[in-house]
Every structure is written in C-alpha cells, then in structure tokens.
Amino acid sequence: MKEPVRARIIIEMLGAPKEYITKTMTDYVDKLKTTHKVTKSEIAEAEPTDKIFTIYCELEMRFEDLAALLDFCFESMPSSVEVFEPASFTLPLDRLNALLNDLQARLHEADAIIKNERTRKQVLDMNSLNTFRRFLLHLVETGKSTASEMSHYVGVVPAELTPFLDKLVEEKKLKKTGDQYALP
User: Fold this and answer.
1) What is the CATH number of the domain that holds 102?
2) pTM above 0.90, yes or no
C-alpha cells in the first residue's frame, strides 16, 4: 500500500569559498526541485567555520511512499529528517522485509566501499613512507649528512625528521656518528 509521505529535510554542506558553497547548495536544491516534489525550501546564509563555510537548507518534501523517502535519504544523506505526515504507518510484512533487505544491502555496499578505501589509504601511506625513506637515503648519498641539512629538502623540521633517520639506522640502512648520518 503506497501512502504519500511529507517530511522536513535538512541538508548541510561544507566548503569554501563562501560564494562557491552558496552556489553549490542553490544548484543542488534547484536540481532536487526537478527530480522530487519540494513544497518549500529555505537556504540559510553560509557561516564561517574555521577555514571553511557551512551552509544548510531546510526543505519540505513530498514522497510517493516510505520507500521513496528512504531512497532519498540514502542518495542525499540529509542531516535531519522529520516525517510529519502521515501520523502513523501500516506496513505489510513483505514491504517491511523488502525495505530492511534494501537497507542491509546498502549498508553492506557502504561497508565494502569504506574497507576498500581504507585498504587503498594503507597502500598509499606505505608507498609514501617508502618513497620518503628512499629520498632520505638519496640525500645521504649526495652528501647531506645531518637532519638539519636534509630538512630543507624534505620540508620536515629536523626534530620530526630524526625519528625516520633513526629508524633507518636501526634497520642498518644508515649509520650515525654524532649528528651525522652516512651509508653503512
């Protein structure tokens, strides 16, 4: 049984500069108006938050049924949803089961994406660290022997660079005498 649903939705965005985030929100709301039944929209003024701006829009929308509202929520990720019509729902078990299975499928998909991105980040971190270590070894090969000398080339202050160099010493890829690093 399809029963129309009316809800207040809040969409939030972060970005910079202010003009960009304001235009992005306006364009997004305009697009929603072409694909959904938006009965009211009110975009707040973008407010500074540290180095970026935050903006939100309050919408009143009408959906064909609960499933359409849930689809919208998964696609748009609103920060708040308040259903104000109907006052209650009657949902046949087969429809409830379909909605729950759809929810689970979407959660599993999101979980798979998160795990994949986490793995990609770990690989990128490892590759970046290996590249950084190779660069430190190269600097030592070219005669830069102290953390202070290398700091200029890598953009890392000597105090933060020293643990990387000391790890290379521990791995016997470098040797250290005083504050001087050299190839073994």
Assistant:
1) 3.30.70
2) no
